[in-house]
Amino acid sequence: MERIWKQKKTTSAEPNLSEASQSEDDVEPGIIVLYKTAMRKVVLESGRTVLKIGRGVTPGEAEGLKVAAAAGIPAPRLHNMFKHDEEVGIRMDLVQGQSLDLLWPTMSTYEKKNIAEQLRGIIRQMRELKPPPNLIGSCDRTAVRDTRVRFMYEGPICHDEDSFNNYLISSLFSQTPSMLRESFRDNLQTNHRVVFTHGDLTPRNILMHSGRIAGVVDWEESGWYPEYWESVKFFERPAEDDWKEYAEYIFPGRYSTELIIYTAMSRWRNA
């Protein structure tokens, strides 16, 4: 039976979203910093809750966590989300486990295949959700979020796959030869299913406990995208060792044509 996720507009009246006047400076002293960049910081607050905060954090990640919870996906449980000036903070449960990127190099082929098949099951769960109508983009309906090799890019929210393809073509360098541009356009399809997508399935975003996937984290790229998007992003994002060799066990389908086209287009746009 198909599970249905009904997209709701976020309002300050929702009980799990708080517009509290907090900022990165309000984080209590003595907390443990788990991860930090110029645009975001992840801190352990009390041993059980994690706060992700900064200008690079988006409300779309909080909405993505809510969708994941509706699908029964192993992911952090959202406590609340708040905004202050240009910062967004997301408070969530700590997922107990070890990062897969630390474990992967020492695992046997059998263990790696087992984890890949667990992830395949999670992807299938995600694809059982019915998408909101007329939406390709982030779960908060604000943008197409497109992290490539190094940087995140944002495009306008799309209402169908044709407009999504327009975004992809618009991301090409202006000096892209017209014959190439037209060839890309001619080969982009418009009949894919739109499915719930994580967007960054790399070992560092998978936490393990006793041989099982305890949680998938970092949902900032999540949203509703054409079914091939998870796969092409999987191959585009940097990952450890032989991770990408297990794609055939991870993905329920193979998107060979889409992968070739996307990889070729990447030659003609910013990384």
From TrEMBL:
Coiled coil (residue ranges): none
- Database matches in InterPro entries: AGP_Transferase (IPR051678), Aminoglycoside_PTrfase (IPR002575), Kinase-like_dom_sf (IPR011009)
Compositional bias of kind Polar residues: 10-21
Domain Aminoglycoside phosphotransferase positions: 42-234
Region of interest (Disordered), ranges: 1-23
Q: Which PANTHER family match?
A: AMINOGLYCOSIDE PHOSPHOTRANSFERASE DOMAIN-CONTAINING PROTEIN, AMINOGLYCOSIDE PHOSPHOTRANSFERASE-RELATED-RELATED
Q: What is this protein called?
A: Aminoglycoside phosphotransferase domain-containing protein
